[in-house]
Design brief:
single chain; mainly alpha; 7 helices
Length: about 190
């Protein structure tokens, strides 16, 4: 029921508020979610039992507000809506913070991987383009001005190739460092 965007009349009239609270709590929804249920059921003359809902929500929160679940959510880059009761929040946040740390390390690794792959792709493109331009340069029927334009394009591509080859060792180092840091982070948080 609680995962539905709207509670209909039947849902409201037969609602098990403890179960709805439990489902909301175990899925990480804030206790204030009951205000949405209250609005939805008001048109049918039904008022949620706040105390019963809160008990169910607290019981459900015990399943959600664990260090392991916090770590999992943080590692996936998910948000935390401050839904854990105060008694359970510290444990959840410990895992969540560690998960966010690992998520950030993974983002850096993905970025460095992408930069290195882009550099290799650009080098391949430049190599093929230079070869094609060299073939074109010696083709029959070209005027002098056309050959000069092609020569200038080849020169530019060689410069771009040299620039990439010069930064390639640094890109490789950054990728290796990011890989090492991420693997160290995975090892550090392996107890989750």
């Amino acid at each position: 029921l609680s995962s539905c965007a709207n509670m209909n009349e039947s849902d409201c009239l037969t609602a098990d508020w403890k179960l709805i609270g439990f489902e909301d709590g175990s899925s990480g929804k804030n206790e204030l979610t009951i205000s949405q249920h209250r609005k939805e059921c008001a048109e049918y003359g039904v008022t949620p039992d706040l105390n019963v809902y809160r008990q169910g929500h607290f019981d459900g929160s015990k399943r959600f507000c664990t260090a392991n679940n916090g770590f999992s959510r943080g590692r996936q880059g998910k948000d935390y809506s401050r839904s854990c009761p105060q008694q359970l929040e510290a444990e959840f946040l410990t895992g969540f913070t560690d998960g966010q740390t690992l998520h950030a390390l993974k983002k850096v690794l993905n970025q460095k991987t992408s930069e290195l792959e882009d550099a290799y792709e650009n080098l391949d493109w430049l190599e093929h383009t230079i070869a094609e331009k060299n073939e074109l340069m010696i083709a029959d029927g070209l005027k002098r001005e056309q050959r000069i334009i092609i020569r200038d394009e080849i020169t530019l591509h060689y410069q771009q190739q040299d620039e990439l080859l010069n930064i390639l060792p640094e890109l490789k180092r950054e990728f290796e460092n990011a890989t090492q840091t991420y693997e160290t982070g995975k090892d550090e948080f392996s107890y989750y």
